UniProtKB/TrEMBL annotation:
Gene Ontology cellular component list: cytoplasm; mitotic spindle midzone
Lineage summary: Eukaryota, Metazoa, Chordata, Craniata, Vertebrata
Coiled coil keyword on record: yes
InterPro entries named among the record's database cross-references: MAP65_Ase1_PRC1 (IPR007145)
Coiled-coil region list: 268-295
Keywords: Coiled coil
Entry's Gene Ontology BP terms: mitotic spindle midzone assembly
Protein name in the entry: Protein regulator of cytokinesis 1-like
Species this chain originates from: Sinocyclocheilus anshuiensis
Domain of life the protein comes from: Eukaryota
GO molecular function: microtubule binding
Length: 565
């Protein structure tokens, strides 16, 4: 199928031939000679040729312009792709110059629009970032303002701006809260902004304050300082109130006056005014105290004695505080008493757990000793109220808990000694040694009581052998056919009486037993009478006494069995 352009070209040739034929007919009709016809035909040919050449030149110029435009667009597209940081533009195959030039021009236009949009957004972001940096005193986002940013760079910049906005809101909220607290504290302390920074933070507009990290840190320091001052003032108020209460007690101020003074102090709204009022009240009491020194010193001495007892001070330690025994009661002696009382209070406060544990051990130890004495008292069996079982259970519990308490005490005392680099004393001696001595004394006392019971039993046995006295011991169940000790001794007594001569002489065997028993009794009396006996001798005496009693009892039982037979 022929193209339209070829058809139009053929028609143009046909029109040209037709026009030439018409010109030829006109020339013939006019009668123009042949040579002139040739001239005229040449003129027509030249005119047509010039026209066609001009047209061809114009089209060639158009072609050159198209090629130049294509080349220029290609360069612009490549440059824009590089600036916009996108992939290179791929041209379609089979396009004519016009189509290619149009596509390239369209692509350049689109890319220039994208470039302009990015540059415009970058400018806006930079301006916003600059405003945030002015408020937050931070650095600008690292990006080149003259270059076209990529989409990723713009996205990162947007995210950065969003983060900065959130940080601004957070810092602003933190600043507003700190400003409120600082204002309240300054009013409470009756303090006014002194430095330019304090004035900027408290007095200026909130939006005009630079929310830098350094400024916020300085605000935190200022807030902490004000908090510390308030805490110090409140602690000082508490201390002064405590001192005022002590002086009230020392000076025996009436209760009505105390209540009136307390009400006056509570009328002040700020900490500063309360502190000033308390200091004024304390000063008045101190002046009154100077006028009542003697009575105040005696009151402080009573308190010192209480803390001496709480801290387990020995007589030597108490004597070391010589002003306590001074009769010259002046301001210097009063000051020394106050310092001593303050030192004792501080000592007790620092080691209250240790002193409380020692107090607990002492009370438990005293109760344990009382229960031990009750446990060896024969009259306890006359109890009908059920206390015997309770006391025994309590005694067993104390016997188990005391070693645990002493172990805990030892750990606390070891810690105290490690801290103070000296030995802990209670009542004038190392407390752990005191505990050990108490246990040793307790064991020795129990051993002494045991010896006394055994000596009493031996003495009763002597009386039985000499005079036939019946030993009243608790009845125990025995095996069938075994004579009880009471019956055996009765039979033995009857047998001895039957063999006794009428003149009242003692049988020879009994005399020998009497001598042996007297010898044994004398030896035991000698051992029991010595008060300076040590623990090992006591143990030997105890075992020997038990051996003597068992031997004598076996001998009596054997003799009783012979008599029964």
């Amino acid at each position: 199928m022929r193209r339209l352009s070829e058809i139009h070209a053929a028609e143009s040739v046909s029109c040209l031939n037709k026009a030439l034929n018409e010109l030829k007919d006109i020339w013939e009709e006019i009668g123009i000679p042949e040579d002139q016809r040739l001239q005229r035909t040449d003129a027509v040919h030249m005119h047509i040729k010039k026209l066609l050449d001009m047209m061809i030149a114009e089209e060639e110029c158009l072609k050159k312009r198209l090629l130049s435009s294509i080349e220029t667009c290609r360069k612009e597209v490549a440059s824009l792709c590089n600036e916009l940081q996108v992939q290179e533009y791929q041209e379609e195959d089979g396009l004519t110059m016009l189509q290619l030039e149009k596509d390239l021009r369209t692509q350049v236009k689109m890319m220039l629009k994208e470039k302009s949009a990015r540059q415009s957004e970058l400018k806006s972001l930079i301006q916003h970032d600059q405003d945030l940096c002015d408020i937050l005193c931070d650095d600008l986002f690292p990006i080149h303002a003259e270059r076209v940013p990529s989409q990723q760079q713009l996205q990162n910049y947007r995210q950065h701006i969003n983060t900065r906005n959130q940080e601004k809101e957070r810092r602003h909220a933190e600043f507003v809260e700190m400003k409120r607290q600082i204002t309240v504290l300054m009013e409470d302390l009756e303090q006014h902004p002194d430095t330019s920074f304090e004035k900027d933070a408290v007095c200026e507009d909130e939006d005009a304050f630079c929310l830098s990290v350094e400024n916020l840190s300085s605000l935190k320091v200022l807030l902490h300082q004000l908090d510390s001052r308030k805490a110090e003032s409140e602690a000082l108020c508490v201390s002064i109130r405590g001192r005022i209460a002590e002086l009230w007690e020392m000076l025996q101020i009436p209760e009505e006056e105390r209540e009136r003074e307390s009400l006056m102090q509570n009328t002040h709204t700020s900490t500063k005014s309360r502190l000033n009022a308390l200091q004024a009240a304390l000063q008045r009491l101190e002046e009154l105290k100077k006028k009542s020194i003697e009575r105040v010193i005696h009151t402080i001495r009573s308190e010192i004695v209480k803390f001496w007892e709480k801290c387990y001070y020995s007589p030597e330690q108490r004597q070391a505080f010589t002003p306590y025994h001074s009769d010259d009661l002046d301001e210097e002696v009063l000051r020394e008493h106050e310092l001593e009382l303050e030192r004792l209070k501080q000592d007790y406060a620092e080691h209250s757990e240790l002193y409380d544990a020692i107090s607990t051990w002492s009370s438990n130890w005293t109760l344990y000793q009382e229960l031990e004495k009750k446990a060896t008292d024969p009259s306890r069996f006359n109890n009908r109220g059920g206390n015997l079982l309770k006391e025994e259970k309590q005694r067993v519990d104390l016997q188990k808990s005391l070693p645990k308490l002493e172990k805990s005490l030892k750990a606390q005392i070891d810690q105290w000694e490690a801290t103070h680099c000296k030995e802990f004393h209670g009542n004038g001696q190392p407390f752990l040694q005191y505990v050990e001595d108490q246990w040793n004394r307790h064991h020795m006392e129990k051993e002494r009581e045991k010896q006394e019971r055994q000596m009493k039993k031996i003495k009763q046995t002597e009386e039985d052998l000499l005079y036939g006295t019946i030993i009243r011991t608790p009845t125990k169940r025995r095996l069938a056919g075994t004579p009880t000790p009471g019956k055996a001794r009765k039979v033995l007594t009857a047998y001895l009486c039957a063999r006794t001569p009428a003149r009242g002489r003692t049988p020879r065997g009994l005399e020998r037993n009497k001598e042996n028993i007297s010898h044994l009794s004398g030896a035991l009396h000698t051992m029991a009478a010595s008060p300076q006996i040590n623990y090992s001798i006591t143990s030997v005496a105890s075992s020997y006494s038990e051996f003597a009693v068992r031997s004598l009892s076996c001998s009596l039982d054997a003799q009783a069995a012979d008599v029964i037979k």
